[in-house]
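Q: I have 151 residues here and want to know how they pack in 3D. Can you give me a structure?
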Amino acid sequence: MNSTATEITAVLHRSQDAWNHGDGAAYGACFTSDATDVTFVGTVYHGADDIGRAHQALFDSFLKGTRLHLEVIETRFLTPDAAIVVTRGEVAKKPPKRLGKRATYTFVRDAGGTWRIAAVQKTKHNRLMEAISFALQPGTAPVEQPAPVRP
């Protein structure tokens, strides 16, 4: 992994640490001021402040004591200052047996060189429906390609 990909991964780890400590402000600080966060349940938040505020309310209630388990599947640079990162993960109080959710992050680097999350879309990976789809219509299966990691 090159240094730029490592910097992006560090932002993901900061967001994960913030989540694991129930720190909404630190979680929101990983996002741009105009970021978009589409949650697993479909709620859309805009901006680092709103993302941090809403997540603090979640950390204080429904998500209290949870941990964010995260693994990078793919990092692809669109430009030297923009990247798409696909992850698998899970939110749970105990280590999960499977990382059953997917998230697609858009990262941007600002003029000062700091990487932040500009957008994230989270969804559940439905393995059964995927398998049925692939069995009934093999053309729907993705072609496996190595994940490019560049600048």
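Q: Anything worth noting?
A: The beta strands are 31-38, 44-46, 67-79, 82-92, 101-109, 115-124. The chain has one domain: 3-140.
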